[in-house]
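Next up, sample data.

:::
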Amino acid sequence: MKKMFYYSLVLLAVACKEKYESPVKSTVTDYLVVEGIINSGLGTTNIILSRTTKLNNRKMQYEHGAQVKVEGEDNSSYFLSETSLGHYSVSNLNLNSSRKYRLNIRAGGKVYLSNFIAVKNNPPIDSISWKRENDGVQLYIHTHDPQNNTRYYQWEYTETWEFHSPRRADLKYKITAGQGGPV
């Protein structure tokens, strides 16, 4: 009886899928998409370059062979090398916080320049706290900028947590005599 229930469940999950056709017609594509953050201190600066595609195209179109560099208003240059398809990186820029910098990209026969922006360093984290909510856990990071120059910060993190179910498992996977399957 249990096997029949699980087979029915799998059949329902597969049978309920339906292809979605967007009513929006694709227009001009091939715009350059730039994703990344310039890391002014220790650590790696990563920039990802890709191109827009039509809605029915499911494959990312990364920009290969571009020239990417960080330029200072003092004519300093830091080149990023392509580490994998469309991914450009450089380590430990150690940019001067009294100068402004911009991103310079040569791709597809065109040159793309951002505005010169002042370097903003993240202050150290004062404390981290959390609060349990209905839909999960909300993390809070507390910090302050003594010069009051910056109000918005971005931190990246990797989740490393475990979940222990309050219920025990009734279904176990057991391999016997060269055959495997639910028991």
